[in-house]
């Protein structure tokens, strides 16, 4: 297959993503405000607790079997290698560019974690459905491509909230120890200056039992640490535990249905007695892709409002994510193929390569917000990395398809 034909197959899915992302950005504008900040939070919760679990569980259940589990074992290691290589390159970037100290954790996070969920789930099925795709029959390609992308999303979420979360937490803690004055600013931001409106720190939320325990805990802590401890333990850890629990649960459900033949025959397929359960769950999962893309565009709005992000830091992150990581990824995957660690499935090999050439994960912004460090800079980094992804992901996808075909 010629280069121009491969470029065409790779570019159309990315263009589709850009168009829907632009709609999301437009809906988030202040004058439109359909996807304002509050709306984005609600839609994000809907995607996380309903659409994503449905999407991942149904696709894993349809395609994962006991035999395929043995073949797919390398994907978790490939993603872990991506995170480790990214954090190493991020550390080198920090030593070269010497950015402000409060941005170090953000840089490590952006270099480590790629968007292993949203973009593969959008791009891979679209490539399967393009005429001239090198991955064979479009229906078979779509079925297995969605399974690979769903597994990538689930594994990536676990790594982000364990590996990257702790990197950014340690960096934030070190800054607070070295600059105690910055701690007060973070506390005031996180609490909304609650101490002025509620001098006794008692919460006015809809969960009085939990809040009373938090307030009692607050009174027992040193004054300079109490608000921060409550914020990190009750918000960040609560969010982390819930996220990991949901993704682990849906992986278990999908795997159990897929590898257990009696359960699979009961639920999966037109002739299955409970096929209505699978079809209903699949219908919910189909809403994930357009909703994720709209939210991705809406979340880029803050980046348009400007920030003081150092230019060379931004250039360095783009270079790491779109030049060095993909090149190292080619070496890793090629070595795995040479050692017979990866099956000779072109689509599976393409997914493994693509995992090294994606823009930073959107969850990095959530983690930065939790620790109150580099929020505005993160928005600018996301804006430019996702704008340049239209070129970088297209070119790398073209090269990867040529490599595996």
From TrEMBL:
UniProt cross-references to InterPro entries, sorted A to Z: Mem_transp_PIN-like, PILS1/3/4/5/7
Recorded superkingdom: Eukaryota
Membrane topology (UniProt): Multi-pass membrane protein
Function: Involved in cellular auxin homeostasis by regulating auxin metabolism. Regulates intracellular auxin accumulation at the endoplasmic reticulum and thus auxin availability for nuclear auxin signaling.
Record lineage: Eukaryota, Viridiplantae, Streptophyta, Embryophyta, Tracheophyta
Pfam family, one: Mem_trans
Main location: endoplasmic reticulum
Name of protein: Auxin efflux carrier
Organism in which the protein naturally occurs: Vigna unguiculata (Cowpea)
Record's keyword annotation contains Nucleotidyltransferase: no
